[in-house]
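Title: [Solved] Aldehyde ferredoxin oxidoreductase N-terminal domain-containing protein 3D structure

Original question kept below for reference.
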Amino acid sequence: MHSMLDMRGLLCLRRTDADGGAMTTNYFGYAGKILFINLSTGEIRKDPLDLADARKFLGGLGINNRLAYDLIKPGLDPLSPGNPVIIGAGPLIGTMVPGASRTIATSKFPLSGAVSAGSGSMTFGFNMKRAGYDHIVITGASEKPVYVYIDDDSVQVLDASGLWGRDNYDAVDQLWKRHGRCSSISIGQAGENLVKFSLALVDKMATIGRAGFGAVMGAKKLKAVLVRGNGGIKVADPKGFMHEVNTLFHRAKSYKLHSAAVAYGILNAGGSFMLGDEGPYGLNIYNKVKKDRIACPSCFIADKDVLVVSEGELGGMKTYTHSFGMVATAAMKGTITDYAKATRIVNMLNRYGLGHQEFDSMFELILEASETKVLREDQIGAVGRNYETMHDLIEKIVFRRGIGDVLAEGWMATASEFGLDTNRFSSHVKGLGTQFDPRERGLGTMEFEQLVNPRGGHHQSGGSPSYNQGAPVEMFERHVDRMGAPPDAVRRIMDSPFGFNVGRFTRYSEDWFAVFDSLGICIRSQNNRFYSADVCARLFSTATGIPVDKEALMEAGERVWNLYRALNWREGFTRKDDTPPPKWFEPLKAAGSEFEMKDYFQTRKLTREDLEQLLNDYYDERGWDPATGCPTREKLTALGLDNIVKDFEARGLL
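Solution (posted by the thread starter after getting help):
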C-alpha cells in the first residue's frame, strides 16, 4: 500500500500569489486563486478567490455551482464552446485530513442536458491546491487538439496533435515522459468522438463525469489537463487542526474492520471479501490478478487496484481501476467466466473513457430489444450475453461504427431512432441510467436519490445505512443525527410505517454529500463513517479561520444543494422529471423468481401512490414547492440566495 505522492509541505505557508507578488489577503485552507483559461482566445488570467463566496458556499462543489450559475447560460448546447469546464478543490484538500482528495468537475453534461457535477479522487486536487488554485475554469474551444499544462505559476496551452487518437493510458504515459510525474485529467477516444456517455480519467485511475464530461472536453479539443504543485496550504489553527486530524486517524486505525478495509477496499463486507473466497471472481482470483493497491493523498486504506493478467493471450495486460468489483460486474453482465476477458472489458472502457454504468445499461437495452424481436439482427447484428458482444459494442460505440453511432448518443436518441418505448426497455431518470434497483434490495435512500438528484439517475449523494442490507432501524436514527439533522427532523424521519421515511432522510444525505464535496472529503463509507457534522465544522474552522458550528455548516450544505437544484430548474427540470422508471413497478424476473419493489425493511409492496407521497415528503422536508419540486422564494431568501430570487422573478419562474 502506498500513496502516489509524498506528504511533504502539506502545512507549508504559501508566501506569494500565483503571479509571484505579495499576497494581499491571508488565505487559510484555500489556495486563494481561480484560474481562467480561454481556449478560443488563448487568454489566461488568475483572479483572487472571493472569501465571501468561501464563507457562503465553502468551496469545491459549492463554489463550482456559484461559478456555473454565472457562466452557464440556460439552454446552452453542452458541446458548444460556451459550455465551461469548472474544476474545484475544496479547502481541506492539500491538508492531512483523511481522504481529503475529492476533486469536482462541473459542466452541462450532454447525456442528460443537466448542469452536473462529477467527482474523482487521486492527486489532481492535491496538486492543484499546491500550485495555488482552488478552481480552474476552462472556456472556449481550440481549433486543434491541445492540453493544458500547469506547473505552479506557469500555465501553458500546448499542442496535443500527437496525442489525439491515443487512449487514456497511452496518452498520459506519453505526457508523463514529456513533463515528469504530475496529475492528469484526460480523455480517450470516446471523448474525442463526442460519445454522450464518455468520461474522463484522473491519473489513469479514477473516473469523473459519466454523463458526457469526456465529450465536453472533446468538443473543446482538450485532450488533458495536467497540474503539478510544489507549494503548500496554510491552516489558521495548526494545533487545533492537527488535534482533529490525529483523532480521525486514531479512530480509523482502531476500527475493528480496518485491516479488512485495507485488504479488500470497497469489497469489504463485514470483514470478509464481498465476492466470496472461491469462485470465478472470488478472493482467489483477486489475489491472483492484484498487482498493487493505490491510495489517494491522506487516505488510510489505499482502495484502488492495479490489476495485471499474468497468463494467456492477454498476459501482461495492466488495468487501473477503483475496484476489482468492476471486473466482477462486467463478468456477470456478460456471463464471462474467464477473468482475463472480464478484466479486458474494464480495461477497454477505461482506456477509451467510456462510462461503465451507461455502457452496461445500453448493453442490457440491446439484449432485451433483440430477445423480444423489437430489434432485428439486420439492424444490430448478432448479439448475445457474452464477451464477444460486449467487446464488439464497445468498439462500435467508441468509434461510432454502424449501430454504435446511434448508441453513442445515449438512451433517448437510441429509442427515437429505433422507435423503442424507453419505459419498457430502460430504467433511467432524466436520461441517466439508474444503478440501484429497489426491486432487488428495497427502496433505500440511494434508490430514491436517483429520482431527485439534479443530474439524473445518480445515487452517490443518497448515502445511508441502506447501502447495505440488514441494517437495524436504530442505525438510521444514529446516522441522520451524525449528519447534523435537527432533533425535530430526526423525529419526522423516524415516524414512518416503513421504519424510516426515505424521502425525508434523503434530504439530509444530500446536504451531507454537499458538505463533503465542497470541503473535498471522500464520501466512501470506509472514510465518511468517521466523520460527523461537528467534526467537519471543527476541521473547516481550524483550517480556514472561518468560525462555524455544525448548524451553520449544514446550512451551507443546504444552500449548495438548493443552488444545484436552481441551476437545473433554470434548464427546465421540475418535478415531472423526478418520475420513477415504470420498470420499477413491474416484477423483476431473476433466478426463477419474481421480485417486486418494497420498502427497505421489506414490510410491503410499494405503489406509485407510495412513491408520490415520498416525493411529497422529500419536497416538504426541503421547503420546496411540491407542485414544481423546486425551491420556493421563501427558501431561497432564507438561504441568502437573493440573486437567484431576482433572476427567477425576471424569468417568470417565481
